[in-house]
Amino acid sequence: MNVWETDTFLARWLNDELSPEEKEAFEKSADYKHYQRIRDTMEQYEAPEYDQEAALKKAMQRIQTKKTKVLSIHAFAKYAIAASILLALCFTVYYTVFQDTVVEVMAIEQWEIDLPDGSSIALSEGSFVQYNETDWGEKRKVTMRGEAFFEVEKGNTFEVILPKGSVRVLGTSFNILEKESSLEVICFTGKVQVEAFEQVEIIEKGQSVLLRPNQAAILGKTYLHEPVWVDQTASYKNVELRIVLEQLNKWYDVKIEGDYDSTLRYTGQFPTYDLEVALEQIFGPYRMNYQLDKEGGKVYLLND
Known about the structure:
Shape: elongated
Number of strands: 19
Radius of gyration: 32 Å
Order of helices and strands: HHHHHEEEEEEEEEEEEEEEHEEHEE
Helix content: 25-40%
Number of helices: 7
């Protein structure tokens, strides 16, 4: 048995009473990092108040008939007390340091989660994620259900485990919409690999894929920077106005009537919850006049 595996040695180490030679030998041992980790964590806790003199006095009263051994017992008691405190704290440290810390979030409303490496998850209402915070540096893995938008920092492989498949990336931003019989992934930056229903697809920035059982993958495009549900805003950069208006129709169920320059491109953003504001932010930069017919679900472009 190594000398540092004894109670008195560890107690003297905790009290900074080791000789330079003992300290040097201990720090070179394979066990040193293990004990130092415990000590570092112990220092984060407030130790219970302990009256050492009173405890020693009480102990000596019990052994007063053995006066020839008072000094040796005094020393042993001192170290045993420290060792017992170490042992008691070790149980606390074990459950806070050596046990895995599993984080689970069920979003009652839209929620944002910051991961240990700086990555983040915007979780849609009613969705669920789970990840292990303890070994995150070695294994970046998230289990999820529902819908979530991921912004992943570069590093080792980042994997999202789903009931029907998985998504693997290195560093990118993407949206996952998981349903009972389908999986839709939209890639906003970087590249992702999507696997579900015995199919594997790789999509890049601006692409989307919809996978269903016993059906071929449906590939598509996106012109957004992030999913609109994250902050209820549609954001575009140098996108054809025609495409923007098509998506406006999708969100508001409104039809655009009239002619406009088909070469126009749009850079900007507008809300997906207020049609009047959206129209002003789309047509305002071009100084285009329009008239909104809410009841008819139409927008008329007015030519000067």
